[in-house]
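stage 2 :: seqdesign
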C-alpha cells in the first residue's frame, strides 16, 4: 500500500483527497516500520502535489506535515541512501512550501548534511541547497547563505569541507547567474587552487573549464589572467593525479576557445548566455524589490516617529496659537 500510495493520491478527486488521503498519509509517515516510511518517501513529491491540489494553503499544509517530515529525517540520519532520496524528493516538492518555510526549515536541514553527511550525500545536498536557495527569491538571504557557506566550507579546516564547497560552486554556476557567482564565490574557489591537499587541487581542476565560460574577456581581464596562471601552474604539479587533471582541463579550455571563435549562435555556449541573462535579470528584480521595501520601511518609521523640539522633548502638535486673541499693547 505504501509503495503505491502516490498512484492513488494522484488519481483521486479534490474532495476525496481532503477527506481520505491527508490523514492516512500522516499515519503512514509515522508508522513504526521503517520499510513503510521509506516506501512513502520515495514518491513524496507526487503526494505533496496531490495534497497541495486539495489544500492550496501551503503554510497550513506544511504545518501538518512538518512533524512527520522532521521525524523521518531524524530517524534515518544513519541511512544516507534513504536520506538522499528524501532530500531529492523535497527539492522536487519545494515549490509547495512558502519561502519562509524553505528558509527556516528545509535549508538548515540540508545545510547540516554538508558538514556531517557522507560524501555521496554531501554531493546531493550541494545540489539541493542551491535549488532551494533559488526558490527563496530573496537576494539578501541568498547572499548571506552562500557567504556563510564560503566561510565555513571554503575556508574550513577539513579538506572534505573544502571539496564539498567546490561541489556547491559547480551547482551554483548551473543555477545562478555568472554575476552572482563572481561576486560571492569566485575568490574563495580560486584560492583553493593553492590548497595543500592534492585532492582539493585535483577537484579544482574540474572547475577550470566551467570557470572559463563564466568569465567575460572584456569585464574579467584580471580573473582570466589569474585562471590562466593557475592552470599553467597546476600542469607542473608534483602530484601525478593533479597533473593529469590539470592537463585535461587545459585541453578542454582549448576546445572552448575554438568554439567561441566560431561564434555560433546555436551552440551550447550561446544558449548558456541567453539563460544567464534571464537569471541575472531575475536577480536584479529581486534586489530592486528589496531596496524598495527597505525604503518604504524607513519612510514609515520616520513618519511614525514623533517630532521633538530643541531640548529633545516631544512637541505638542495639538497646541495652536490664536493670533487674533492677542491684544496689541501699542499706544499712539
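stage 2 :: out
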Amino acid at each position: 500500500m505504501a509503495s503505491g500510495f502516490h498512484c492513488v493520491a494522484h488519481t483521486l478527486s479534490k474532495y476525496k483527497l481532503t477527506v481520505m488521503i491527508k490523514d492516512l498519509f500522516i499515519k503512514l509517515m509515522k508508522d513504526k516500520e521503517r520499510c513503510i516510511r521509506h516506501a512513502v518517501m520515495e514518491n513524496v513529491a507526487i503526494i505533496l502535489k496531490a495534497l497541495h491540489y486539495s489544500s492550496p494553503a501551503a503554510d497550513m499544509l506544511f504545518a501538518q506535515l512538518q512533524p512527520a517530515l522532521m521525524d523521518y529525517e531524524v530517524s534515518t540520519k544513519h541511512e544516507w541512501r534513504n536520506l538522499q532520496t528524501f532530500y531529492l524528493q523535497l527539492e522536487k516538492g519545494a515549490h509547495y512550501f512558502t519561502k519562509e518555510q524553505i528558509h527556516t526549515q528545509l535549508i538548515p536541514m540540508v545545510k547540516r548534511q554538508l558538514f556531517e553527511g557522507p560524501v555521496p550525500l554531501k554531493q546531493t545536498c550541494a545540489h539541493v541547497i542551491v535549488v532551494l536557495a533559488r526558490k527563496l527569491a530573496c537576494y539578501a538571504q541568498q547572499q548571506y547563505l552562500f557567504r556563510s557557506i564560503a566561510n565555513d566550507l571554503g575556508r574550513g579546516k577539513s579538506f572534505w569541507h573544502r571539496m564539498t564547497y567546490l561541489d556547491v560552486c559547480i551547482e551554483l554556476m548551473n543555477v545562478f547567474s555568472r554575476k552572482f557567482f563572481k561576486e560571492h564565490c569566485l575568490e574563495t574557489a580560486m584560492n583553493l587552487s593553492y590548497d595543500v591537499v592534492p585532492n582539493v587541487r585535483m577537484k579544482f581542476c574540474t572547475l577550470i573549464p566551467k570557470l572559463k565560460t563564466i568569465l567575460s574577456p572584456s569585464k574579467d581581464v584580471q580573473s582570466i589572467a589569474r585562471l590562466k596562471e593557475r592552470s599553467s601552474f597546476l600542469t607542473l604539479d608534483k602530484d601525478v593525479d593533479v597533473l593529469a587533471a590539470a592537463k585535461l582541463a587545459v585541453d578542454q579550455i582549448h576546445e572552448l576557445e575554438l568554439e567561441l571563435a566560431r561564434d555560433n549562435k546555436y551552440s551550447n555556449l550561446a544558449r548558456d548566455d541567453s539563460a544567464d541573462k534571464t537569471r541575472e535579470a531575475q536577480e536584479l528584480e529581486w534586489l530592486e524589490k528589496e531596496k524598495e521595501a527597505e525604503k518604504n520601511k524607513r519612510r514609515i518609521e520616520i513618519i511614525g516617529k514623533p517630532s521633538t523640539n530643541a531640548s529633545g522633548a516631544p512637541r505638542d502638535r495639538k497646541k495652536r496659537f490664536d493670533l487674533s486673541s492677542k491684544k496689541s499693547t501699542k499706544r499712539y
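stage 3 :: structure notes
- The chain is about 75% helix and 0% strand.
- The radius of gyration is 28 Å.
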